[in-house]
Amino acid sequence: MKKQKQFSKVMLLCFLFATITYASIAAMGYSMFGSEVQSQITLNLPTKRSSSKLAIYTALINPIAKYALMMTPII
Fold first, then answer.
1. pTM over 0.70, yes/no
2. Which residues of the chain form beta strands (DSSP E)?
3. CA atoms within 13 A on the CB side of 50
4. Partner of 31 at 20 to 30 A CA spacing, among 1, 3, 6, 13?
5. What DSSP state is assigned to residue 20?
6. CA 36 to chain centre
7. Taking every annotated instance into account, which residue ranges of this chain make up the domain Amino acid transporter transmembrane (predicted)?
8. CA of 26: how far to CAs of 20, 29, 42, in Å?
9. Contact status, residue 37 vs residue 29, Cβ threshold 8 Å
10. Going residue by residue through the chain (75 aa), what tens digit of pLDDT does each one get?
């Protein structure tokens, strides 16, 4: 950043935005599935639909794809 004094404000704004986004998605998921919501949202998806399978596989591949990005600063 050009103005390093703004870093804490930007971080606070980003964390606030992420918190609001996750909370709204959680509320929408609870409103869709009700009290029968399971611990992982992918367990609530119907297994016979191809769109659900795509979502499940994407959720499985996501951490594997990010492993190299997380290890780059360490290496």
1. no
2. none
3. 0
4. 13
5. H
6. 21
7. 1-75
8. 10, 5, 13
9. yes
10. 678 888 889 999 999 999 999 999 988 878 887 877 777 777 777 878 888 888 888 888 888 888 877 777 766
